[in-house]
Amino acid sequence: MSRRSAARSTVRMASATVVALAVVVSAAACGGGEDEQPAAADTAGDLLLQSVADTGPDPFTQSTAAKPPADALPSPANSPTPTRRPPAKPASHRSVKGSSDTLYGGSRGVDSCDVEQQIRFLTKDQDRERAFAKVAGVGTSLLPDYLRSLTSVVLRKDIRVTSHGFADGRATDFPSVLQAGTAVLVDNEGVPRVRCACGNPLTSPTALKRTARHQGTAWRGYHPKRAIVVTPASRPLTKIRLFDVVKETWIERPINSKSAKNNKDKVIPSPPLKFRGRATGPNTVELTWKPSKGDVKVAGYQVFQKGERKPVQEVLPDSKGARVSGLEAGSEYTFTVRAVDASGNASAASNKVDVVTESEQTQAPVQPDQPQPPDQPQPPDQPDQPQPPQPDPPQPPDQPQPDQPDPPQPPPDQPDQ
Q1: What φ, ψ does residue 10 adopt, rounded to 5°?
Q2: By the 8 A CB rule, do 206 and 164 touch?
C-alpha cells in the first residue's frame, strides 16, 4: 500500500493534532507580557478552555514551543463556548494512563519544547524560579535537572489539568482544558508537567464547584465530557511511542533523552490493524489481524495478554493470526498485538480485544443412592378352590363291525406212514 493509502488509516487518529498544531505558529504571542492578559481571578472557579495558541492568564515565561512544519498548518477552527456546565469532578472524565500509545505525537528528531530556553527564562528571575519549583515540588537548585528529565511531546487528546500562572510574585492556579496539538513536557510516568507555550507548570486536575462554567473559546470537536485525565503509568517509562503527524509514521522517543535530536528517535513499525478474536473452545482463542503498513519491515508479531508482561505468542511476519491455548473455561481475557522489526523495535499496541472462553460441557450430577421402599408383605396362601368337575369328553358310539370269516385252519395231522 502506498504512503497515501496508509495515511488514510492513521491520519484520522491524529486529525485533532493536525488541526491544533496549526496555531502554534502564533506562539510568539506568549512572550514579552506586553499584551494584556486576562487576570487569573477572572476565571477562578471556572474551567478555562485553552486552544493551542491561547496563552492563558499570567503566563510564567515566554513561549518555548517549537514552530511546527509548514505542511502541518491547516486553518484552526473555533466554536462558541459551551453553555453546558463542565463535569465538576475529574473522575467524571475518562482517565488514561501516561503509558498509553494514543496520547502523544511529535516529529522525529524535533523537540516540541526547548527545555534549555525554559531553564534560562526561569533562572533569570528568582521569584519565578522559586514559584515554579514550589509548584513542581522540587528544590530551586534542582529545577534545571528536573526540567531536563522531562520529555517533549504534543498532545493528541484534549486533557484536563490544573495550570499555574505567575502574578504578584507568586504562582496562581486555575482549572484548564488543553487542546490536542498543545506542546507539553511529560515526566517518566507519562504525565504532562509543563505547558511549553507559556511555561506554566501543570498539576493534576481538582474538583470544580457545581456552579462552575466554561471560560474561553472552544474548538471544533470539544465536548465537556470528552476531555481526558492523564494518570501516572503503572511503572516508570524508559521510552514513549509517538505518532509522527507529518510523515504519518510512528516513532519511539527515549524518556529523559535531553533532546530528540541527534537521531535519538527511532522509527518503529505501525501497529497491526483490525485486531479481532473469538473463543474456539473452553481453553482456546483464535486471534486475527491485518498486517502492519508503512516503510518499516516487520520481522514478526507479538501477542500480549493483559496481566502478562511477556508475549504469550510470537509468530512469523507473514502471519495474520495466532491461536492461544491453555486458558480457563468461562473466563474473560484481554489481548493486544504488536509488530516487531528486525532490530527488536516494537510498534504501538493494536486495539484491545476482549474474549470470553466457552464453558465446559458438564455432566449431569450423580444422584446419591436413594433408600429403597421396604418389601411389601405377600398375601397369605389361599386355600385351593374346588374345581368344577369337567365332563368326560363324549366318546364316539361303537360302530357295528361286519362279521369276518374265520381264518382258514391248518390241515389235520397226517398219520405216520
Answers
A1: -110, -25
A2: no
| Cross-strand bridge partners of residue 79 | 218
Q: Which three cell numbers stand for residue 73?
A: 498548518
48, burial (CB in 10 Å: exposed 0-12, middle 13-18, buried 19+): buried
d(CA 317, CA 299): 5
Q: Rounded to 5 degrees, what angle do the CA atoms 134, 135, 141 make?
A: 40
Say if residues 382 and 363 touch (Cβ distance below 8 Å). no
pTM metric for this prediction: 0.72
Q: What are phi and psi of 336, to 5 degrees?
A: -135, 165
Q: Average of pLDDT values for 379-397?
A: 55
Give tens-digit pLDDT for 171-191. Answer: 999 999 999 999 999 999 999
Give the separation between CA 241 and CA 101, rounded to whole angstroms: 6
Sheet strands (E) in 239-378: 239-244, 249-254, 266-268, 273-279, 285-290, 300-305, 313-315, 321-324, 332-340, 353-356
CA 63 – CA 51 distance, rounded (Å):
14
Element (H, E) at 8: helix 3-11
Give me the torsion for CA of 65, 69, 71, 77, rounded to 10°.
10
In DSSP notation, 137-200 reads TS-GGGHHHHHHTSEEEEESS-EEEEEEEEETTEEEEEEEEEPTT-EEEE-TTS-EEEETTTTE
Nearest-angstrom CA–CA distance, 133 and 198: 16
Contact indicator for 136, 172 with CB cutoff of 8 Å: no
